[in-house]
Amino acid sequence: MEKRFRSLDICAGAGGQALGLEQAGFDPTLLLDTDPHACASLFLNRPQWDVVETDLRDFVGHEYPQVLNVDLLAGGLPRIPYSVAGQQRQATSERDDLLKATVWLATEVQPRAIMLENVPHLVKSPKFAELRDSVEEELKHCGYVCVWHVLDAQDFGVPQRREHGVLVAMRPEDMDHFSWPSSTGKAATVGEVLGSSMASRGWQEAHDWSLLANEVAPTIVGGSKERGGADLGPTRTKKIWARLGVNGASIGDDVPGPDFVMRQGEGTHGHRGLPKLTVEQVALLQGFPSDWQFAGRKTARYRQVGQAFPPPLGAALGKSIRAALDH
């Protein structure tokens, strides 16, 4: 039987990272998140998982003995505080508090490995150099070696241009055996991934649409509560979606029916215009399997999808970490 490893998943969201890690051989001893809808989604898909709805800053590891000395502490901290826009909207203290809470938790839990993901700015930008140094220094006191890297989800089969900044920390004897995952090849296009679902209600132009949608998706955004309702991002991103034959102004309730007529530049009301993506379709572009469920109403569900860590990338990273731990 394949050896399984134990993990603690913080800021778990709807479970994209946990699902990928599960595929890589990690079973979560506990998952935590502040969002009740995300916690409900985790229960919907994996009722056997132990899910705690709490703020990371209030979580005390020793109150949950099962998380002590796990093989992997993994989490995706909220992305907005480290984004270019987020620097204008979020207090530095809140941003740093979450990262510090994660480091403190790591020193308490003492996992063999740590994996944290966020926006690439956290890894690449000189603005965060002092913060990176602070994290490395704190973890060094506990015997960890840190490495930082930026990975693009499209290199691991996710049909989307989506960069993630990743920190991996291990003790030297394990880090000697760690290497970043290699690309698994070219990702499918939006049309290839969503063509069958677009045709599922009898839309006659679904095949033509799939030929038009002949690129991987732009980065899916709109998952933050700081933004308005469910849409596919700012104006620049919406223009890319329009080029791919998608109306990015909002998220649809269903795919087009047989009487829908695709028209560019003729409005988006009624049965004319560009089709909108459903939450389930966006989830496919994030790399979720079609049977993964999201709890809540449309906007709450879309926010979970928009904030998610693509499961295929989580699996690739998990396999690399597992190989290092299993040397």
From TrEMBL:
Q: Which SUPFAM superfamilies match?
A: S-adenosyl-L-methionine-dependent methyltransferases (SSF53335)
Note the Pfam families from the entry.
DNA_methylase
Q: What is its EC number?
A: 2.1.1.37
As given in the record, the signal peptide range reads none
Q: Which keywords appear in this protein's UniProt record, sorted alphabetically?
A: Methyltransferase, Restriction system, S-adenosyl-L-methionine, Transferase
Q: What class of enzyme is it?
A: transferase
Q: Name one GO molecular function term.
A: DNA (cytosine-5-)-methyltransferase activity
- From which domain of life does this come? Bacteria
One GO term under biological process is:
methylation
Q: Which family does it belong to?
A: Belongs to the class I-like SAM-binding methyltransferase superfamily. C5-methyltransferase family.
- Kindly give the PANTHER family that the UniProt entry links to this protein: CYTOSINE-SPECIFIC METHYLTRANSFERASE, DNA (CYTOSINE-5)-METHYLTRANSFERASE 1
The protein's name is DNA (cytosine-5-)-methyltransferase
From which organism does this entry originate?
A: Nocardiopsis tropica
- Gene this chain is encoded by: dcm
